[in-house]
Design brief:
single chain; alpha+beta; nine-stranded mixed beta sheet; eight-stranded mixed beta sheet; elongated
Amino acid sequence: TLKQGHSAGTDFTLPLWLGQIPAMSYKMDQKSLAKLVRLTFDNTRSADVEKEVLPFYKTELGEVDGLLTKLSVNKETGISSKEVENRKKEFGVNKVEAEPQEPLWKLMWEALQDPTLIFLTCAAGFSLFIAIFVEQSDYGWLEGVAILFAVLVVISVGAINDYQKEAQFRELNAKKDDVPITVMRNGSTSKVSTFELVVGDIVLLSTGDILPADGIIIGRNDLEINEKMLTGETVMKKKSPSYAIVDGSVKSNPTLFAGTFVQAGEGRMVVIAVGPNTYQGTMEEKMKEAEAGRSILQKKLDSMTDLITNVSMYVSILLVIILSLRMAYSFHTKQCCMESWDHKVHWTELLGFVITGITIFVVAVPEGLPLAVTIALAFSVKKMLKDNNLVRHLSACETMGGATTICSDKTGTLTTSRMTVVKMWTGDKTFSNIKAASTAVKAELLKRISEASVINTLFKTYLKREGTDNLSTVYCGNDTECALLVLSDELGIPYEQVRKSFPDSEKNRRCFTFSSDRKRMSTVVPYEGGVSAFVKGAAEIVSELCVSYLDSSNSPVPLDKEVMRGVQQTISDFADEGLRTICIASKSLPKTVDVAGLTVQEVERELTLVALVGIEDPLRAEVPDAIADCKRAGIVVRMVTGDNVQTARAIALKCGILSKDGAETVMDGKDFRERVCDKDGNLLQDEFDKVWPDLRVLARSTPLDKHVLVSGIQASQITTRQTVAVTGDGTNDAPALKKADVGFAMGIQGTEVAKSASDVIIMDDNF
């Protein structure tokens, strides 16, 4: 080892294939690793990162190299196979045990614990006892049997419905969790089961992978991570071993989270948390804590049962006392049938008084009510299924009708979760309708916009046509690039046609990929007998590189100060509406240019501005009317999102959650936490009650912020008890879905975790 260049003091573990048994001592425990995961997830603003994260990650841990040392991991050879079992004992197993489906008999037994049904069963027992042993009539037993039959029907209908819906749900979400993962062990790569992954494993990641655990990135990479299912944000995240903070903005961070998706690129990570210790695992623990007791409907029935029980009990006791006093008075006044006490007669008469009291008690029981309620709810479940709502819990049918506030996720719930070009500036004109632009703009300019949009996209980004009519489109690859492909289709020029004309394998084609420093991407291709470069990127940056623009006739015109002011104003207007603005530009190069020898600086200067496009995740068509209906019904809709405040405010205004006078409150998640929670994350109810009545939008929120919001509203006593509904589609929504009085998950775009936490699954994602 020393001959290979390692000093005696270096903490270095020889790989197994060199014959050394690996070290089994770790200088870091699971609690510290969990702290690192939580800090990096909860703090995304540069000021918070510098204050909260860097002192721990950089100073205390020594970044990724220090972390590897503390976990006894060699980043070149990985861990030894002999260490796996020890690491499982030390840091846990990468598996969250799913709770088995409860058997039907257990569901029936749980249903029988309802106070109303217990009361009915006892009443049936009394009725049978009196009929068989006291009255001894031929048909006196019928009433007791009828009550027991009603109880049996109630528990059967409720239990069978819940059992069938749970089975249907499990079948709907059945998937194989045991996915092979490529890891570095014993100095070579190998495939292991997801469940065999341990803390310290070095995982090799590539496009299309779903991250199996939380980890820290190692070395150089070109990864683009889609964290939408965890944060709700559609922006791809860059990763690096160290935090990259530029101009007060976090450009990349080192932490990767289980359940997120590798949109593009390759890289390596060291696993720092597995199974229930991942951030996703902590949310599942929150869901278990939120295993709420009885539903609102059940509580109402319980209250009514208590009232009936108490009243009928007191009336029955009073009746027995009155009858006994009347008998005593009759004895005293010598008005009774016999002047002296007769055991055979008078004890039977007293027993008759008691039986009369019990009869009154039994008759007062509304034995038909639970059956009527259960049957009504069962019919509601079937009717709602026809409306594409899978009701997993019977009582949710009634609870949703009494909702007073809805806390809704934005991405995928209020919006379509499909980035779309909704506005375009070209030829010194702004178009708010792309279909209208396809008829108003001349064909030559439309062709140029389409080619500039499609040529400068990666071929691994494409649109997948689905359905018998191919009208359903699924985005594959980068969402922003998919939006540009759809733009070409909407302009009347199919993107496949453009790609066929300019194939990826074409000679003299060269691509300068997007970088966070340049904030743009460029592609050089042979074009119309010459060579042209096409550039797209952040509008405020690419527009500054332009010296001309294409007018309405597709002719280049100098970009004078007046037009440039108009361009800058358009960029500003698009930003105010919450749009992501992309500038599309082009440049003609000499026919004899050496494409292989071109530098990015030579390509990306003196450009011609082709178009500005405003991209957003548009609202679902039904959302504004649905929110207006909620307002008319007295239901307050609150939006909870991972997007920034500006984007969240713009979307909330469009869908009607915020009024134009701005009387409602919009808060950042960090400010919300600091105000309503203590240092340990516990809710400060008094402070919370000052915030929530006017709060309509919570931006930059974490999953636990949503959980706090729902918990606080439910616990508040400044108004009548609020019935809280939550809608969501991502893993980040799961704790709040579980905590809510009724949780709605999206059936198409919803994750399995979100669906399992919900009471109702909206099969067609229609808000």
